[in-house]
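[09:14] KT: can someone run the structure on this one? pasting the chain below
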Amino acid sequence: MTGTAVVCLPPSGAGRSFYRGWPRRIDEAAVRPMSLAGHEERMRDVLPGSVGEAASDIADRVLALDAARVVLFGHSLGAAVAYETAALLAARPDAPRLAVVLSARQAPGGPSPVLAALDGDDRALLDTVSAWGGMPPGGADGELAALLAPVLRADLAMSAGYTEPGGPLRVPVTVVGYREDTVVPLAEVGRWSALCEGPYRNETLAGGHFAAKDAPEELIGLVREVLERTAD
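[09:31] RB: done, structure tokens below
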């Protein structure tokens, strides 16, 4: 096992292209965005039925990288998958050295912000995610909407069903909330501390719910810092 990997896990409805701007900002060789099954290049794979199922798949893919040190960065739904992936890996004797960054995600057990979105039809669902900043207003119509809505609905249902964490984690965890995030309140982000028994940091950055997509310098700097600490 050699080297360090930054494994980036996307939010609901998105795949690895959510992080298209990250490799050149951090390290072309180290940054490894991963799509969940049923998304983007893995669209023919069966969608996971739970966060735990998604985490088991990602854990296998992380081990296949054969990296000695891994930073798991997850945004929104991806943060839940990152936490559970870390919990699975930490229990394995062949696991890499781990650090975790959880971005724009409430801790499990609190109120889910996505339940109301799941009550409406597909058009209402897409409009809600547009209002959150996940896509331009009216950005998914016709054939695109027909393809995106079922995947987004499945992801949001999986997110809402994540209530029983597999931790507590004893690896370094950094939790990131965003001042302009109207989806996940900062107070709910901070509740991750109860599920983390190793080194823990809580950071608040500028930006809305999907800030990570644009790779703001403040967030990239934070991930670089975690990467450097993990490599020491």
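[09:33] KT: thanks! The mean pLDDT is 89.
[09:34] RB: yep, looked fine to me
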